[in-house]
Amino acid sequence: MASDWTPDEMPSLAGQTVVVTGANSGIGLEASNAFADAGAHVVMACRSVERGRTEKRDVAAAAGDASVTVRELDLADLDSVSAFADWYDHEYDALDVLCNNAGVMAIPRSETSDGFETQFGVNHLGHFALTGRLLDSLRAADGEARVVTQSSGVHERGDVDFDDLHGEDDYDKWSAYAQSKLANVLFAYELDRRLRADGAAVTSVACHPGYADTSLQSRGPEQSGSRLRLLAMKAANAVFAQSAERGAWPLLYAATHPAIDGGEYVGPGGLLNMRGHPERQSSSDRSTDGALARRLWSVSEDLTGVAYDLPSPEPRA
User: Fold this and answer.
1) Catalytic residue among 177, 189, 253, 265
2) CA 42 to CA 310: how far, in whole Å?
3) Taking all residues of the chain, what is their mean pLDDT, rounded to a whole number?
4) Rounded to an integer, what distance in angstroms lies between the CA atom of residue 44 and that of residue 26?
5) pLDDT for 241-287, tens place per residue?
6) What span, in angstroms and rounded, lies between the C-alpha atoms of 173 and 267?
7) What is the pTM of this model?
């Protein structure tokens, strides 16, 4: 059902702590602004602390000197993920909202510090490890905590190639991106099933921004050295994309709307689900495959070394 919701309808988040990954630009920065404006203490988890500190001043000023902290988090490095989680647990008693937002899109093949294909490593495995390491803080929240994982409509084209998960034999940048975005939805749903089985007061939701004008689209052409593709992408953004501010609306809706339940998928309800006000939507059939999600979960635990203290839900007969 379409909505006319805007961030002006967000409830007060006073006394709550929100972590946003990829917070120094684009959707992450816009979401950080909105959370701070609603009264939350925002932890801007950024790969570049220098850039994050620059943006922090603007976020705090726009929200009336809101409470904002910048901390380094490189999702392409599991040691960095572990260090961030250890720091968070030392500094804070609980976590109310975790926004797994950071990502890379359609870049030439490369590997993370741990040897993972970068899109799968950053978009999925880094967030898988981060969420697992912050699980106790989420459980400790006063009330229901939420984990919101940012996916993409491109997940509908995705499959998980367990025989060549890191694109070592055959790499296509868009197929790798679609795989990582499908993994995001599979993870969000499986996390919610396990949280329910545990009886935890934590819910997990997936969302997508539609087509938003951010730096995400330019990184692939820039890294591949294609000036023509970069110009074409900038032209497409100018004609078709909504702003990064509006691209953040589904994430904000998923993180704060009282009617949102765990295991849901939120995206913009306008033209081709690329723009407009946020609404509940249906993800691909493959994204709801419980057996696929359980296999991905097991592989993700093995690859990251992060085991969740959550029961595995029983498969349906």
Assistant:
1) 177
2) 27
3) 91
4) 13
5) 789 999 999 999 999 999 999 999 999 998 788 999 999 999 999 99
6) 24
7) 0.91
Beta sheet of 41-46, edge-to-edge order? 68-72, 41-46, 17-21, 97-100, 145-150, 202-207, 265-268, 278-281
Show Cβ contacts of residue 51 under 8 Å, excluding neighbours closer than 6 positions: 24, 25
Separation in Å, CA 185 to CA 65, 113, 147, 302, 313: 35, 24, 12, 19, 17
In contact, 304 and 288? CB cutoff 8 Å = no
- Amino acid at site 108: P
Q: Cα separation of 32 and 194, whole Å?
A: 28
Nearest CA to 139 out of 130, 148, 147 is that of 147
**Which DSSP helix (H) or strand (E) runs through 69?**
strand 68-72
| Number of Cα atoms under 13 Å in the Cβ half of residue 155 | 31
Q: Which domains are seen in the chain, by residue range?
A: 13-213+244-301 (3.40.50.720)
In this structure, what token pair is assigned to residue 147?
Answer: 């984990």
CA 244 – CA 218 distance, rounded (Å): 14
Residues 16 and 115: their CA atoms lie apart, in Å, by: 36
User: How many angstroms from the chain centroid is the CA of residue 145?
Assistant: 15
User: Tokens standing for 245?
Assistant: 């501010």
Q: How far is CA 294 from CA 178, 289, 314, in A?
A: 19, 9, 10
C-alpha 26 chain-centroid distance: 13
4-8, 52-56, 151-155: least confidently modelled range: 52-56
The question of whether 177 is a catalytic residue gets the answer yes
Helix (H) or strand (E) holding 301: helix 290-304
Residue burial 101-136, b: 16+ Cβ < 10 Å; e: rest: bbbbbbbeeeebebebbbbbbbbbbbbbbbbbbbbe
The tokens describing 146, both together, are: 């939420």
